[in-house]
Design goal:
mainly beta, 142 residues, 1 helix, six-stranded antiparallel β-sheet, binds copper (II) ion, four-stranded antiparallel β-sheet, 50% strand
């Protein structure tokens, strides 16, 4: 009886240990701006690469717009804001890549539906090594 209890405790410890060291590509703090059909919107999130190897975000897919693109906002000479489409985004191992207003963002061009606060949309992130990650993204005000 006692042996069994010890074995259960050991198993629990092993499982907890495995959880703590899970090597994952995690996407968190995701949100997308409310907007209306025919207009544009942008989504933001933080990618944390815990996989132990360098990776690259190749593309992002959604079914809410005519085009889903990865953009980088930057301030040009004269203070004009400009956005450049990114072919890919490096996600080095053990690093965080932050998509945020004024920086990297996922741009939805030509929404095919309204984006109402409180609803969620589904985003698919495609990584070179980690493969596909599906993220539920709440619609909210900045
Ligand atoms: Cu953009």
């Amino acid at each position: 009886m006692k042996t069994r209890l010890i074995m259960i405790l050991m198993l629990t410890a092993t499982l907890l240990g495995a959880c703590a060291t899970t090597r994952e590509m995690s996407i968190h703090d995701a949100w997308i701006r409310p907007s209306t059909m025919g207009n544009n919107s942008a989504a933001y999130f933080i990618i944390e690469n815990g996989t132990g190897m360098d990776d690259t975000l190749l593309s992002v897919d959604s079914d809410i717009a005519s085009a889903t693109e990865v953009h980088l906002s930057m301030v040009m000479d004269g203070g004009v804001m400009s956005m450049q489409q990114q072919e890919s985004v490096p996600v080095p191992t053990s690093e965080k890549v932050e998509f945020k207003p004024g920086g990297l963002h996922v741009m939805f061009v030509g929404l095919t539906q309204d984006l109402k606060v409180g609803d969620t949309i589904t985003l698919t992130l495609n990584f070179e090594n980690a493969g596909t990650r599906i993220v539920e993204v709440p619609i909210r005000e900045p």
